[in-house]
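Customer escalation, tier 2.

The customer says the design service returned an amino acid string that "doesn't look like it belongs to this structure." They asked us to rerun it and document both sides in this ticket. The original structure tokens are below, unchanged.
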């Protein structure tokens, strides 16, 4: 393990000065917890604010030829409605100038924007940030949850929530890091005689002779001329028209498979001249030197804790076992006790209304 931030304090964290209205990040265990010391973390404390703070690692982190593992826990005690709960891993930079445009290798963690609730894993490759094609959802409750990402030298990855594997796959397939290997041949044209109409009218199907014998509308048989109707003053009374239940509508021949159908045409695929294979997609190009929190939250209250960077999943999980796993049951009981205690106050408030 190269780095483990347990937030015993926040002395090493440097706040950005790129704007003067950043929200304040404070050390807190929250309103409920399993163990006050173990569950102490960095909490967003002001609503409708941007937050921007970072910490320098004790040594730069690279991963050539080995696994890369990052893990963090987040508790959205307020119930996250719009905002981020992710961290960024960054190369060397000026911490005081940290902002949304600062270059990073990885942005990882939960995020909610409108109805979109997902775990982000954005990878920077050759100076461009690439969204994860998958959109796994994070647990929608107020408890602490652990998010762990493992990237391997085989250009594979695994993503865990609470130590349970949720997603895995290939970096090349699940992020658009490289151009497509194959593209449409721009020289290939659709043949003039290509038939791509899957169905046709049945030439044997004929319109019945009595199809159009009934009009679309008829006089309403239930309508009666009002007794007080005066033809002189009101004009000649006309029976209102209603849809004719016997009218069959427009006739259409039944559809049958087209015997000349060749299928949907598409141009042949050729090798993309812009594609260049890269067997080191996994590799950190610029050593990671900082961990940062750069988020917006409408409703504050999220608590970040136990940010871990390593090269061995078992070693990272050992820390998760001694922190999150060791306290999660007690945390849930503490939450339930808090909600029970708050319930009478809410009921009294309702009665007053």
């Amino acid at each position: 393990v190269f780095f483990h931030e347990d937030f015993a304090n926040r002395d090493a964290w440097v706040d950005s000065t790129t704007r003067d209205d950043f929200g304040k990040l404070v050390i807190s265990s929250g309103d409920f917890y399993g163990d006050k010391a173990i569950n102490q973390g960095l909490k967003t404390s002001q609503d409708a604010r941007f937050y921007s703070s970072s910490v320098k690692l004790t040594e730069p982190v690279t991963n050539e030829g080995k696994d890369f593992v990052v893990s963090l826990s987040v508790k959205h005690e307020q119930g996250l409605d719009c905002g981020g709960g992710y961290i960024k891993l960054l190369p060397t930079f000026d911490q005081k100038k940290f902002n949304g445009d600062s270059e990073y290798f990885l942005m990882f963690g939960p995020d909610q924007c409108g109805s979109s609730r997902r775990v982000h894993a954005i990878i920077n490759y050759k100076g461009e940030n690439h969204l994860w094609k998958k959109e796994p959802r994070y647990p929608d409750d107020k408890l602490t949850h652990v998010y762990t990402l493992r990237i391997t030298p085989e250009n594979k990855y695994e993503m865990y929530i609470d130590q349970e594997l949720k997603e895995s796959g290939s970096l090349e397939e699940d992020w658009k890091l490289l151009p497509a290997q194959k593209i449409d041949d721009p020289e290939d044209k659709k043949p003039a005689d290509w038939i791509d109409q899957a169905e046709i009218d049945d030439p044997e199907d004929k319109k019945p002779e009595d199809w159009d014998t009934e009009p679309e509308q008829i006089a309403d048989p239930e309508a009666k001329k009002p007794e007080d109707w005066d033809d002189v003053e009101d004009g000649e009374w006309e029976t209102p028209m209603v849809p004719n239940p016997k009218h069959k509508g427009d006739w259409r021949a039944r559809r049958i498979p087209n015997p000349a159908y060749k299928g949907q045409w598409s141009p042949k695929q050729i090798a993309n001249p812009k594609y260049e294979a890269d067997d080191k997609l996994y590799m950190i190009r610029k050593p990671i030197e900082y961990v940062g929190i750069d988020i917006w939250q409408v409703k504050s209250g999220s608590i970040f804790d136990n940010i871990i960077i390593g090269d061995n999943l078992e070693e990272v999980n050992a820390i998760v076992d001694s922190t999150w796993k060791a306290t999660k049951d007690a945390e849930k009981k503490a939450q339930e006790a808090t909600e029970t205690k708050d319930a009478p106050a809410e009921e009294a408030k309702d009665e007053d209304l």
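Tier 2 assessment: The sequence is consistent with the input. The chain has three helices and 22 strands. The chain has a mean pLDDT of 94. Sent an explanation to the customer and offered a walkthrough call.
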